[in-house]
Specification:
5 strands; globular; Nonspecific Lipid-transfer Protein, Chain A; 5-stranded mixed β-sheet; 95 residues; single chain
Length: 95
């Protein structure tokens, strides 16, 4: 597992603060790998999920740091969404 994926798992787990996510989403970080968030928490993985969000490592890091709004990233084409848009919109409660 890449260090970027490890850092992303830690950062996203911190954002959840012990809460769980009602659904399943995969964050694919280009050229690095993927992580999953679901009712079990956050982990590295490439399982099938309801929605997949795809971005470059720097974009994902900016989103996690709060320097980039996920909606703005999507609207500008920096973040791609494949799958259930309703599940993707529920992720906004985390960010």
């Amino acid at each position: 597992m890449s260090s970027i994926i490890e850092q992303a798992v830690t950062a996203l787990s911190d954002k959840l603060g012990g809460a769980s996510f009602d659904g399943s989403a995969k964050f694919t970080i280009e050229d690095e790998g993927s992580l999953i968030i679901d009712t079990s928490g956050v982990r590295a993985g490439d399982d099938e999920t309801e929605v997949t969000l795809i971005a470059a490592a720097d974009v994902f890091q900016d989103i996690l740091a709060g320097d980039l709004d996920p909606t703005s990233a999507f609207m500008s084409g920096k973040l791609r969404v494949e799958g259930d848009m309703g599940t993707a919109m529920r992720l906004s409660s985390i960010f």
